[in-house]
Design goal:
globular, 371 residues, 6-stranded parallel β-sheet, 12 helices, alpha/beta, 7-stranded mixed β-sheet
């Protein structure tokens, strides 16, 4: 072998060794800085953080089940952290633990977590955070997601307006917020579209979850003459209380065929929601808000078979067809409780105002206080 050829082989070996060393260093750097310690082996992992026990009847169970189904279909390992109290600092600790495990997608099921997570989103840019609220986008590092419940809520209002015999319709919700006002307003407009003279009694419980407050709300509404009601609550407490006292109601989570007074239910396909969010590459797509509803088959009003009259079914179906044909819920002549004009005939309230700036309530609603 010539000296020249031997030098050439030596040179190539040195170059190969240098390249190999650089590649190894790059891999180590990425595993430590991008994936987090030994978490690089778990890039296909997802976490869901809940304030309530994951088997709580209502939102917690439906959300946990939908997330599990989505993860199973897409091959993700799922960690569920439940009973994480809002505002206690526990969410911060749980997220630190999840990041150390290498979890890259963290979903928050309670709007109250957002302030706690905003700082962490900047601290861990390699992690995608998803907050269950679309009142407003918290930061660049968080994607806000929710469902356009108000579309199905409008249809439930139509049904409630048709069903009431007393002309008094009840509604219970935690407290005034963009999301709860938006849903209540849509419900009220639905009621008024078929029963303009109806009174809509609203009871605010003061907390996202309060079994005692929610039971009291049902009893107060019934005492004031309401014979049918809708509600906004993460749990089934209100539905159970309405069933117990024999008041017709529209469920907010899942149709209960065995419940005699459940005339319909607003149902969410959480499997679809989480499947779409897990498939989303929000960095490349630049998305900050996910907000889908009736027209995306994410939410629907499921009517109780045999519980409605032919007229009720026909008019709810007509209202649904009108929405599909382009009727805008927040359009036309809308006046708020203070008498201010919020929308003129021929106008439509913008999507951004519906989503983030609904700080008013439609005329016709009356707050019910404890006696």
């Amino acid at each position: 072998m010539s000296v020249k050829f031997r030098d050439m082989l030596t040179q190539r070996f040195v170059i190969f060794s240098i390249v190999q060393a650089l590649v190894l260093c790059l891999c180590i750097f990425l595993s430590v800085n991008h994936f987090g310690g030994d978490g690089w082996q778990r890039t296909k992992s997802v976490a869901l953080i809940l304030a309530s026990p994951k088997d709580t009847d209502g939102w917690p169970r439906e959300i946990a089940l939908g997330m599990q189904q989505a993860c199973d279909a897409l091959g993700y390992e799922l960690y569920i952290e439940d009973e994480v109290a809002v505002g206690s600092g526990a969410c911060h600790q749980v997220i630190e633990k999840l990041v150390a495990r290498g979890v890259k997608r963290i979903f928050l099921a309670n709007p109250g977590y957002q302030e706690e997570v905003e700082m962490l989103a900047g601290k861990y840019p390699q992690v995608s955070f998803f907050a269950n609220s679309v009142g407003e986008v918290v930061s660049e590092g968080i994607l806000n997601y929710s469902v356009r419940y108000y579309e199905a809520r409008y249809l439930s209002g139509v049904l409630a307006g048709l069903r009431t015999q007393t002309g008094i319709v009840g509604y219970a919700a935690p407290f005034p917020a963009p999301e709860t006002r938006r849903d209540l307003n849509a419900f009220a407009l639905g009621v008024q579209s078929v029963r303009p003279d109806a009174r809509i009694l609203v009871r605010w419980t003061g907390q996202w979850i309060s079994a005692a407050g929610e039971q009291e709300a049902v009893y107060l509404l019934r005492m004031q003459g309401a014979d049918v009601m809708g509600y906004f609550s993460p749990t089934q407490t209100i539905a159970a209380a309405a069933e117990e006292i024999g008041m017709d109601y529209i469920d907010f989570h899942r149709l209960r065929p065995g419940n005699a007074h459940c005339i319909a239910a607003i149902e969410t396909d959480w499997r679809m929601v989480y499947t779409e969010l897990l498939r989303m590459n929000r960095r490349s797509e630049g998305e900050h808000v996910y907000w889908k509803g009736l027209f995306d088959d994410v939410v629907c009003l499921h009517l109780q078979n045999g519980a409605l009259t032919p007229r009720e079914e026909a008019l709810v179906g007509r209202a649904r067809s009108a929405l599909w044909s382009g009727h805008q819920i927040f359009s036309g002549n809308i006046i708020d409780q203070s008498g201010s004009q919020r929308c003129m005939e021929g106008e439509v309230i913008s999507n951004s105002d519906v989503r983030s700036h609904m700080d008013w309530l439609v005329k016709g609603g009356e707050s019910v206080e404890s006696r």
